[in-house]
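Figure 6 in text form: structure in, sequence out.
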């Protein structure tokens, strides 16, 4: 929250639900000196394999995304959610579903108290997330009422959770990280208390757990196999979807690009080509960290998003 990245914003902590006395945080992020009137809304989901991370961890919040919101004077809302392995993938989706209910019902009530005169224009709603946050963004786009979400930006999203990459042990070198022993995961599982709820973990806390779970092929086990969890299955059941922009690094060592290829191919079979765009750049996970709104590939991609989100071409 004290990062220079957020220097142009005011940040307010609220909570969108309570489970066993545990408050589930959401943060409302407003441009400083935001004017009265209606403003478009951006919902941002953080990533890290649903095992670590927190909404306001600046290291994983790309500067271009904040600048894009400033450009359009958007209200950002970013929720925390339960983290595995203390929960399952279905628990996470339950949290996200509850968050969306809260957003529709209670966001404006909070805004009216925090910044009287500022209104959330939910008719102009964009969802954005990276990695596992990209997964949650796509899942939201496929599960919320048709037309509610106008566009989705999913950066290097985790889509194919059934891939052997997530379900089988192998020597996975993620951005030069070391191979960690299986005991990292086993010791954590032994230390867990029944009913424990973890909704926020600022790195480096639990990063070793995340890496070891990936290397040992345990992520798929923690996540689950229910078909509701899988975007590739959801595509078979939806009647429409919002515009989706995916960008993915060709050399991604954390989330193989093949999942994005599969999703885009299937989405184009079900819907029109103009409903989804995949942009591939050389680079590893998080390659967009150095991008700006003037980076050609990003500028071009955001033009399409802006048109769907706001009905404007300006990016």
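Output sequence:
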């Amino acid at each position: 929250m004290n990062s220079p990245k957020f220097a142009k914003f005011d940040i307010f902590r609220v909570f969108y639900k309570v489970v066993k006395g545990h408050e589930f945080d959401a943060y409302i992020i407003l441009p400083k000196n935001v004017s009265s009137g209606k403003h478009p809304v951006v919902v941002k989901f953080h990533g890290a394999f649903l095992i670590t991370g927190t909404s306001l961890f600046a290291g994983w919040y790309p500067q271009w995304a904040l600048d894009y919101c400033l450009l359009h004077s958007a209200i950002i809302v970013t929720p925390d959610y339960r983290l595995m392995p203390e929960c399952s993938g279905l628990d996470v989706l339950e949290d996200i579903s509850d968050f969306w209910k809260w957003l529709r019902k209670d966001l404006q009530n909070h805004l009216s108290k925090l910044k009287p005169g500022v209104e959330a224009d939910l008719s102009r709603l964009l969802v954005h997330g990276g990695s596992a946050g990209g997964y949650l963004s796509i899942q939201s786009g496929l599960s919320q009422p048709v037309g509610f979400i106008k566009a989705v930006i999913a950066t290097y999203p985790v889509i194919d959770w059934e891939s052997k990459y997530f379900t089988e042990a192998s020597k996975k070198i993620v951005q030069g990280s070391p191979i960690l022993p299986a005991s990292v995961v086993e010791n954590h599982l032994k230390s867990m208390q029944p009913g424990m709820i973890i909704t926020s973990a600022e790195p480096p806390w639990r990063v070793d757990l995340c890496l070891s779970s990936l290397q040992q092929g345990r992520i798929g086990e923690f996540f689950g196999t229910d078909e509701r969890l899988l975007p590739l299955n959801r595509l078979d059941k939806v009647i429409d979807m919002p515009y989706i922009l995916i960008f993915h690094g060709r050399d991604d060592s954390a989330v193989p690009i093949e999942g994005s290829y599969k999703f885009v191919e299937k989405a184009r079979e079900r819907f029109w080509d103009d409903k989804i765009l995949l942009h591939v750049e050389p680079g590893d996970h998080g390659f967009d960290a150095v991008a700006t709104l003037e980076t050609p590939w990003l500028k071009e991609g955001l033009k399409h998003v802006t048109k769907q989100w706001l009905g404007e071409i300006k990016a």
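Caption detail: Residues 59 and 203 are 9 Å apart (CA to CA).
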